[in-house]
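Suppose you are handed only these lines of text.
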Amino acid sequence: MTVLLPTSTAGSLPKPSWLAEPEKLWSPWKLEAQALSKGKQDALRISIHEQQQAGVDIVSDGEQTRQHFVTTFIEHLSGVDFENKQTLRIRDRYEASVPTVVGLVSRQQPVFVEDAKFLRKQTDKPIKWALPGPMTMIDTLFDDHYHSREKLAWEFAKILNQEAKELVAAGVDIIQFDEPAFNVFFDDVNEWGIKCLERAIEGLECETAVHICYGYGIKANTDWKKTLGSEWRQYEEVFPKLQQSNIDIISLECHNSRVPIELLSLIRGKKVMVGAIDVATDSIETPEEVADTLRSALKYVDADMLYPCTNCGMAPLSRDVARKKLNALSEGAAIVRNEIEHERAEKLEYAITEEVAAV
Ligand code: ZN
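From them, the structure of the protein bound to zinc ion can be written out as follows.
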């Protein structure tokens, strides 16, 4: 990235109310067939326009063509029976009725590649594309075939790698894997979760990111957060191994959360997408609040490695709130960018003065 502190979002953005019911996760589509595919394309156009207007540097599809960040991908795979549902605890947090893995999982055709090609035509800005991570995928399914979380995750990693390679060929600049499950199943993450993630990014000729958060601002997540105590040290469990991994960028929740910011020192050397926008509240951050979060992250992350971002996706928020939050993100990033540039110019001036004095 040539811009200092390039801004982006974690992933999803609100959909227009004519496409899907607003302020809701898993919102059903309001259109059908041909009208739905055209509607999704129009929503992509609007989303990219709004991101660019808000000054977002690395844009995305805002997940306008998906109902859900995990399920929509799985719906396109074979080996999973969506009729046959079982009740399961998701991320050890809430019960949900989930589809069943009934045979070998495979990807018969590309899932998001056409959407990515369409998006590529709409903008010259770098594009980030989010895919679910292997561990988060297995956590939303009942496995009646592999009978091994690790084996199923490995199969998904191979499938994700195929999709990711085609997304890169379609012009995507950063592939991001969403792994909120990394914040829950620490032993599995360290034993095989990160290995599966590395399988998913194998041979990708683009930058790669992993997004690890405390979830959307929905009740199940906010209730869970209340049980986590005064300091959220979950990242501490997986950062040391992630720091050693091949992943380029780590996307994290930082603003308004109880994550001790010094945990960022555990991933030194990685690029960090710092969540500076809280997605669990409608109140709009001031640019100065955003700047404060970024400044505290700068104590542990080099300025050239810091990417201001949102804590998580904003799909459940109203469009108006999401837009204002994106503006705050850009304005907050601009404040800190100016400070860094000013500081660098001063240092340069000082160095030149010293050199002249020495002659
Ligand atoms: Zn998230």
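What can we learn from it? The CA atoms of residues 25 and 64 lie 12 Å apart. The mean pLDDT is 96.
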